[in-house]
Write a structure and sequence with these properties.
Blueprint (H helix, E strand, L loop, with lengths): L11 E2 L15 H10 L2 E8 L5 E3 L6 H4 L10 H4 L14 H8 L5 E5 L10 H9 L6 E5 L2 H9 L6 E5 L4 H11 L5 E5 L6 H8 L4 E6 L2 H10 L2 E4 L12
Parallel strand pairs: 1-2, 1-9, 2-4, 4-5, 5-6, 6-7, 7-8, 8-9
Antiparallel strand pairs: 2-3
Helix pairs in contact: 1-4
Length: 243
């Protein structure tokens, strides 16, 4: 198993340390700079451009973040890099731009946002190519079994984890099937804790982080039933958190 214990050490800023998209928007270089200054690990999301460049962006479409219609995957990286996020000066960054900014100063937890196995062909390879030679703590994760499997087939040198949610036995069965790929950690929905799946992982020493913690109750749930939190909307250095 890859060394992943570091993922327990620092609160993870969800899509960077943004201010709930008031002035500093999610998944922007501004949000990542703010996380670095605060000393938080960074969670971010990766979409693929039409020319197979990994872009830091959560949604599959451009409406919420760029106030435009259309799919991310229908645009080239050059086109996407010119689009303003939330009307701010921040543009959609590439994964390369984010890595050049962070430079190993804080850990990165990178989520791959997939569509389906056919449309995601080459996604994993594109991400790993950009990451090659990066000197810093990185973990990769996804909800998508086909992407997790592709990461393992590609012999990903970084820890790989399952992003997950659910409280039903069929959820847990699917999660266990994914973990059987040889995954290193799980990021689980905080509202769905505690549960047998997560408890079983922790008994085996597999790290569990939560998403997305927004108040003191969720933070308490995290540290009772998991190892670390992915948070937004408050400063975890201050206690109590603002509900």
């Amino acid at each position: 198993m890859s060394h992943i214990d570091w993922i327990k050490d620092l609160p993870v800023a969800h899509r960077g340390y943004h201010d709930m998209n008031r002035e500093i928007w999610e998944n922007t270089l501004s949000a990542f700079s703010r996380a670095i200054e605060a000393g938080f690990a960074i969670e971010c999301d990766i979409q693929l451009s039409s020319d197979s460049v990994p872009m830091v962006f959560h949604d599959h479409d451009l409406q919420r973040l760029c106030n435009m219609t259309g799919e991310v995957r229908e645009r080239t990286a050059g086109e996407l890099r010119m689009l303003s996020i939330g009307g701010t000066k921040d543009k959609i960054p590439t994964l390369r731009q984010m890595l050049d900014l962070v430079k190993g100063q804080v850990p990165l937890v990178i989520e791959l946002k997939g569509l389906d196995a056919e449309q995601d062909d080459g996604f994993v390879e594109a991400v790993l190519e950009v990451l090659e030679g990066y000197e810093g703590k990185v973990a990769l994760m996804s909800f998508d079994y086909h992407l997790l499997r592709a990461l393992k087939i590609a012999e990903c040198p970084w820890p790989v984890g399952l992003t997950a949610e659910g409280v039903k036995p069929e959820n847990f069965a699917a999660h266990r099937e994914a973990m059987d790929l040889g995954l290193d950690f799980t990021s689980y929905c905080v509202a769905h804790l505690p549960n047998d799946f997560v408890s079983g992982l922790r008994e085996k020493g597999t790290p569990v982080i939560t998403w997305t913690v927004r108040d003191e109750i969720m933070r308490a749930q995290t540290y009772k039933y998991a190892d670390q939190m992915t948070f937004e909307g408050f400063d975890p250095r201050q206690s109590p958190a603002i509900a």
